[in-house]
Amino acid sequence: MTDFDLDEINRLMTTTKQVRKRLNLERSAPNELLLECIEIAGHAPVGGNLERNRWLIVTDPELKNEIAKAYRSVGLPYLQANQGAHADSRAAKVIDSSIYLIENMHKVPAMVIPLRLDRPPVREDEVGSVAGYFGSVLPSVWSFQLAARARGVGSAWTTFHLAHEEAIAKLLGVPSSVTQCALLPVAFYKGDNFSPAPRKKASEITYLNQWKHSLL
């Protein structure tokens, strides 16, 4: 047994969602609060304990506008092309909320960009290296999102801006040797709480020893 409140931890982890329509665009997100979340995120596991992850917080309106334009140029055509294909599914709601975010990206109080101090492997035979590379970044980003959620701040993992990574790097003064891994629009969320999303049972998606051999 541990001294953690497992009910509260489970509630945090099952109700931390990608927040788009419920971002409060009228309320600022203090840098001090975001730094708290980044401090916690820094304790996530990283390969070799090499602290090569960095974070960039963007709050300047002109910079946000430019990033939002690049984001929109990629995201809007992609989502509109897929809108009709998911008219009767949960995916339709995701597309709708994603389009809302695109149209309001420039209004978010802050954009948080997780970075790494090198470039990912690119050869096809380096699948393991690529997995290890991003495996040293993604846990930190998820920890950031959990820490933010616990403080009333919503976020969403997005990557549309990466189609213009070079231009955005130049805009933000990021060296070409540094990799942008995602873009998180962050803001206090509106409303009281979130409920867990419907998901398949663990027993339906977990196998024992061999592919599709059930645990049960």
Topology:
Elements: H1 6-14, H2 31-41, E1 53-58, H3 61-83, H4 90-104, E2 110-116, H5 127-135, H6 138-150, E3 153-155, H7 165-172, E4 179-180, E5 184-188, H8 202-205
Antiparallel strand pairs: 1-2, 2-4, 2-5, 3-5
Explain what you see.
This protein has 216 residues and is an alpha+beta fold. The protein is built from 8 helices and 5 strands; from the N terminus they run ααβααβααβαββα. Strands 1, 2, 3, 4 and 5 form a 5-stranded antiparallel beta sheet that branches.
Q: Helical amount among residues, as a percent range? A: 40-55%
The mean pLDDT is 92
Structural class: alpha+beta
Report, as a whole number of angstroms, the end-to-end distance: 26 Å
Order of helix and strand elements from N to C terminus: HHEHHEHHEHEEH
The tally of helices reads 8
Largest sheet: 5 strands, antiparallel
Low-confidence segments:
none
**Radius of gyration over alpha carbons?**
19 Å
Residues in β-strands, percent: 5-15%
Shape: globular
Tally of DSSP β-strands = 5
Gist?
The chain is built from 8 helices and 5 strands.
List key phrases describing it.
5 strands; globular; five-stranded antiparallel β-sheet; 8 helices; alpha+beta; 216 residues; 43% helix
